[in-house]
Amino acid sequence: MRMPYQCMTRCGDILVAARGSSIDSFRFQDGSLLSTWKPPSSQDGQGSKAPETVAEITTKLDSRNSESSVEIALDAASPPAKKRKLSKSEESPGHPERKNGKKKQNNRASALSSGLETLAVIILASTTDGRHVIAVTGEDKSIRVFENVVKDGTQELKQLSQRAMPKRPCALVISSDNSTIISADKFGDVYALPLFPSANYIKSQGQTLEPAKPFVPAANELTIHSQRNRKALENQKKHTNKVSEKTELSFEHRLLLGHVSLLTHLILVTSAKKDYIITADRDEHIRISRGIPQTHIIEGFCLGHTEFVSRLCIPRNRPDILISAGGDDEIFVWDWKSGELISRTNLTKHVEALKKKLGGAEIVDESIELVKVAVSGLYHTRAHVDDHLLDFIIVTCEGIPALFSFHLHLDGDLLQDPQIVELPGNPLAVLTDIPLLSEGSTGDIVVSIDTVHLPGSTTVLRSEPSGTEKCLMIFHHWDVGLVPSDAAYTEPVEDDDSVLRSGEGIGWLSNLLYNLENLRKRDGDGQDA
Amino acid sequence: MVGPANKRQKRDEYKNAKGDKPATELPKKKFYRQRAHANPFSDHQLTYPASPAHMDWSSYYPAFVLDTSTEQIVPENLARVGTGGAVKKLKQDVEVADIGCGFGGLTVALAPLMPNTLILGLEIRTQVTEYVQERIRALRAQHPGQYENAACLRANTMKFLPNFFKKHQLSKVFLCFPDPHFKARKHKARIVSTTLNSEYAYVVRPGGIIYTITDVEDVHNWMVQHFNAHPSFERVGEEEQEADECVKTMRVETEEGKKVERNKGQKFVALFGRLEDPAWE
To answer: Where are the WD repeats (chain A) (predicted)?
Structure first.
């Protein structure tokens, strides 16, 4: 079985795609594999090394960021601190996965003990000049910047920096001048970091007021009134030597804006010479803020979604409209500057029709009476059809083995005439605007296919791998629509698929590839306090 | 567990018997008590409008409903895409928000002070919200024609403020005796933070004022520091602050304010004016 690619980006003439913790680079032109980057730890004997690495990371995190509350009793010499539940440590409060937190943690714990490398790449981005690739590894919340070194026909990714963020990044973009990384995290905060960390960054540069001050309880006799609170305060006062907790990142960063929610997507757009940042969250909001340096000013909201928003898309040639989708049945089109909704297009009915067509044989996890759709991708592409240059919006949904290609009409701003392209597996990522591979074709795209799970399922595995499935498929846009191409990438032969041999590994992989449906709010979740 | 069951039974009995009592009787707090803290990051089971245009205020301010029963106004773009139903319009918008109104002392005290302004108390705890709603109902029955401009609803404002209020809709926002969240780990849960202040700046019009009061000096310093750090706000000078009628009311009429008074505690007040947005850089 082969590990599928969970994310992709285009870096100049090179396709960069991540599977698990490795990053493969391919040449678009001929599809040849150029290089594979693996995180350092997996190079020297995985089995024994991996758990230690993870422990190191955890300690690093702990010292860097006391607020993250990751606490593992590594250092027995240190005074016993207040024990916190480990299962809570990674989960932000109110995070949808909290209910499964325990299970997930166990998954991870046993995955670690079995020597599984869990530093999965969750986001890939690249600078427009094709010189740098940015990857986010989820477990250590790190943003890694790579230099794309091309020399004498060889290419490799060279890691330049690694910066651990306070919370796990959920979306990341690079500013148009390629100087700044803008990262949105699961705690709702958006940070700006320079692409290259400056060497002479001085910690706490006007960030916080006080240097390590002795701990003083925030409460006093006048603010508390109950017997028990008084006792607690007296106890606190005895521990005056405790240094107050302070979070400090050791690199230059700036907090741009924040939601009190999990952020799902972030885009930058320039319209009428003004820069904007658009952010989407789990609580149905799409927020329009001014661009750097006035990100504290909210210009407006696009409100109308009734489920989480997971993806945003602004067509390159139509910067005035915003397309959004998520857990709702419909795709929304907005006049985002006024916040006005222009149109809604039903997606669920197409998914339902497809499911019916594929029948029960292919779709295994059938407790589905109501088809719920979680949009995992919204992409804009342009293609020549009958000598007209037309706009298309390609939509993918979590665990649905198809591409939905809607025609975006310029007048009326509607999404129409969807072409439904069935795929041999669930799509995991799509890359549009790739360099053309064959004469006469337009709007070529690459689709990453899940070759591990059954098409239409996010949990059930394929029984027997034939070994011939391709993880990456290329499509051309002809007059009839999207058609698969014969061109292919030389995918590396999986040298180590131990991950896919254990139950924990599979659980870990499923969580990595399919996590959007977890964003849906459940009835009875978060009971009233 | 005998205790809680008994308590619930008593509450049910009390609430069922409400119908027999005169409408003018004020609710009893003891039947509406609820733990003082709620997790603002939790989903709860909240009801909130998809957008301000979806919000039907008519049941909250029945005396202020625009009398156009024949032609109900539906925002144009909503009609076009068929969202929601017809929403009864009010003669005017809500302009004052008491965020975390608790048992509603300030909300009902402000109502006679600003009889022509709609005041809304927002509270995250269901029981407490219910109490304030009952209280306003009783006050309206006791004083016909008064308290029609006060209302209370349940909301998590840290998440859903822009769902209720349009850009620049509010002129005054009160943040009275907020949950102090002492632990550094919990600071993100505080009602004031630099990032959240952007949302207050969004709903408050330039010239509007944010009122804060707390009995915890640390929280006061925190709020001052974070509002000062936000370019859209500027602290109001002491003289102007003390001349403000609302400040006096806020000091003595909030339920928490009264409690602090009884315990001879300190009160820290700070007001912040909403500045005009700067030109686009």
So the answer is: 302-344
